[in-house]
Specification:
The protein is mainly beta. It has four domains: 106 residues, Roll (Phage tail proteins - horseshoe like beta roll fold), CATH 2.30.300; 88 residues, Phage tail protein beta-alpha-beta fold (3-Layer(bab) Sandwich), CATH 3.55.50; 78 residues, Phage tail proteins - horseshoe like beta roll fold (Roll), CATH 2.30.300.10; 71 residues, no CATH class. The strands form three sheets. Strands 1, 2, 3, 4, 5, 6, 7, 11, 12, 16, 17, 18 and 19 form a 13-stranded mixed β-sheet that branches. Helix 3 runs antiparallel to helix 4. It is globular, with a radius of gyration of 23 Å. The two termini are 17 Å apart. About 2% of the residues have low confidence.
């Protein structure tokens, strides 16, 4: 078996191209973090000498200045995975009196940063559901290779223009995230499937589809993770109650929300019993759902209910060469060897890639909303 991987690094102003060989030779460390709840980020560390071309040629012409585009990809077993497609936000140079110890650290975030540059507050969006507004906004970025993936909400809500016209607040990124939060959705920009392409996903957390090869623990030579531990929050699950207001009577009506449904399918046979209840909007004047339309209030509450249901968290690390695959975030993965309560499928909440010369490791966080696996086997 070919027990190695190939790293690709591309940089450039908007159109990234392969970097020169001397830059790859100076690259000492890469860290890329992808998380469902926030932007993906990256950090590249270069070792620089006093007479290096990096210091004397590339830095003076702005090669590492914001917002230069950066693409990092790895090829393992003939399959290329794009880890990050983003832009530089800052760089830090640390000279040292010790030979070979001076470093240049380049930091950046995913391509959604390009959506967060200009404040478009005040743009009106009359008689348009959230899906339509998101589609129009994301169409502006097709020229950069950003492909929108928009999942319509189960309960379509179109604002009545006679009651008011919604206006954009903040940048495109801030407003699209705001629209996602109001209906219990997530929004992120993820790289791939090929370098130079991105997809902008607006929809529920994707807890469906084929699972990645299993993470195996406590199985002697068959184990493929360095560590894996589980935490069960017995008080984490709560019954969420949202108030919606009847327009005629002005009487708020309490509506208990299910935590298992189209936004959050069950990943185990034994969901925990909720021990507490929470009123989402009784005291929250800033986000008063009682003043929202019923459909919008219920959708927002369902999203929060789905988040509170994930009472199991698993954290671990692995060596990619031993695992044999690149663990990807925002999808399912199997777990085996942890016992009846914790074996089965999990949602990959976050992944951090740590790459050095000849070494590729990942740390990760998994979540699930129930114990006892739904299936007797997982993909290996």
């Amino acid at each position: 078996m070919n027990n190695s991987f190939y790293l690709s690094l591309m940089m450039g102003p908007m159109v990234a191209v392969p970097v020169p060989g001397h830059l790859i030779d100076a690259l000492s460390k890469i860290q890329v973090t992808a998380n469902t709840d926030q932007r993906s980020g990256f950090q590249l560390t270069f070792t620089v000498a006093k007479n290096s071309r990096i210091l004397n040629e590339l830095m003076p012409v702005g090669f590492f200045d914001a917002p230069v585009r950066v693409i990092v990809a790895v090829t393992l077993k003939g399959q290329t995975t794009v880890l990050i497609d983003g832009v530089i936000t800052q760089h830090d140079y640390a000279p040292s009196n010790e030979p070979g110890q001076s470093t240049l650290t380049v930091t950046g975030v995913d391509f959604s940063q390009m959506m967060d540059m200009i404040d478009f507050s005040g743009i009106p969006w009359p008689a348009m559901p959230a899906e339509a507004r998101v589609a129009i906004i994301l169409a502006r970025y097709l020229i950069f290779g950003v492909i929108p993936i928009i999942i319509p909400t189960p309960l379509l809500f179109v604002p009545n223009p006679l009651e008011g016209i919604p206006g954009q607040q903040g940048t495109d990124y801030q407003y699209v995230r705001h629209l996602a939060d109001r209906v219990g959705y997530v929004f992120y920009v993820a790289p791939g499937p090929k370098p130079g392409m991105n997809f902008a996903y607006w929809g529920p957390e994707n807890k469906f589809g084929e699972a990645q090869p299993a993470l195996t623990v406590n199985s002697d030579a068959s184990s493929n993770v360095e560590s894996l531990s589980f935490s069960f929050n017995g008080l984490g699950k709560t019954i969420l109650i949202v108030f919606v207001q009847n327009k005629e009577t002005k009487v708020p009506i309490p509506v208990p929300l299910p935590d298992i449904g189209p936004l959050n399918p069950p990943l185990g046979k034994k969901p925990p019993f909720p021990l507490t209840s929470t009123f989402l909007n009784r005291y929250d004047e800033k986000e008063n759902m009682a003043n929202k339309q019923i459909i919008e209030a219920v959708m927002s509450g369902l999203g929060r209910a789905a988040q509170s249901a994930d009472v199991i968290t698993a954290s671990g690390s692995l060596d990619v060469m031993r695992y044999g695959h690149v663990l990807k975030p925002r999808s399912l993965v199997g777990v085996r060897g942890a016992g009846p309560s914790y074996d089965g499928h999990y949602y990959v909440k976050s992944v951090t890639h740590n790459i050095k010369r000849g070494e590729y490791k990942q740390s990760f966080t998994l979540t699930r909303n129930a114990t006892i696996s739904l299936t007797s086997s997982v993909k290996v």
